[in-house]
Write a structure and sequence with these properties.
homodimer; 2 domains; DNA-binding; three-stranded mixed sheet; 6 helices; globular; two-stranded antiparallel ribbon; Arc Repressor Mutant, subunit A; Dna Ligase, domain 1
DNA sequence: TTTTCTGCAAACGGTTTGCATCGCT
DNA sequence: AGCGATGCAAACCGTTTGCAGAAAA
């Protein structure tokens, strides 16, 4: 999928939810397309700092409002760390899980065959219907493993989530 | 495990991390033991409201400080919802995952055989070492399935976490 | 007596909201 | 022209922190 196609898709998603094609929304869509092309993940603040270079009047609220829509439409992925912070990236596929570095917080999508039936069975035993599931693998990337000087007690490691 | 034993364990955990056995800590340990016995999960605020009935001077900060310690010691579990809110409960076992109702947010521990090797392989391919993983099943409990009048768009459903 | 813990209140950081204005359509 | 979207600033909410006084050891 090319940059432009992604930008289009994002722009469309924003249009569908809201109605108007505005400068801020175009900016956001374009930037997200770039990030998608590079598989780069980001925090809201990262993105805001970025976008403000192109339009220093762009408000945080506007960005939050757009991200909200895109999450709803499942065009963005969000992962939550144990300290409550979030990072986002543009979805590439529909079925995937996340792998994140507990040190630098970079994250990537991974493909796994989970025993969905086993999950459904367990749910049924507890008299729940299975509606969805969330799996995140926490690891350490090669780069961070080599940086031996950094803290061994990263803030992003989930206590027991 | 009886109430008292759990209370003891919690009290000990608090002691180890901090040093002193104080009234607030005893209160917290006792209440958590009760909640554990009933497998009840709770939010920090729930717990604070509760505890204030017994000691109306107990401060929120104290509670946060104790919960922090217990999370560290892995005596408490926390799950995070898409809207960023948290719920806790006392751990029963070491290896388990969570199942939560996307409507009422009640949650329980479940046991699953995940393909850990597959996870490790996927990690290795991306040049990550696997350090941990988090799985949450989102479902709807029988009770909530029967309450047809409630919103069909619960705030707690994870966008794509 | 010493040291740690506590409650309070203020600070914090990320997010949301109210509102006057702007700018698509 | 009309209505939705925007930017701003203030509100919000869960959580953390600084501090003076209280209470374990």
């Amino acid at each position: 999928m090319s940059d432009t196609v992604i930008a289009q898709k994002i722009a469309t998603a924003l249009d569908q939810a809201g109605q108007r094609t505005t400068r801020p929304r175009r900016l956001i869509a374009d930037r997200l397309a770039e990030l998608a092309a590079r598989s780069t993940d980001f925090s809201i603040d990262d993105l805001w700092q970025d976008l403000r270079q192109q339009d220093h009047r762009l408000g945080r609220a506007t960005l939050y409002r757009s991200i909200e829509v895109l999450l709803q439409q499942r065009l963005l992925d969000r992962i939550t760390y144990a300290d409550g912070s979030h990072r986002y990236h543009v979805c590439r596929d529909n079925t995937h899980y996340h792998l994140t570095c507990i040190q630098c917080r970079r994250f990537v999508e991974v493909h796994l065959e989970l025993p969905i039936e086993q999950c459904a069975t367990v749910c049924a035993q507890t008299d729940f219907s299975l509606e969805g599931l969330s799996l995140t693998l926490f690891g350490r990337c090669a780069q961070c493993r080599n940086e031996l000087h950094v803290s061994m007690q990263p803030a992003s490691f989930p206590a027991s989530e």
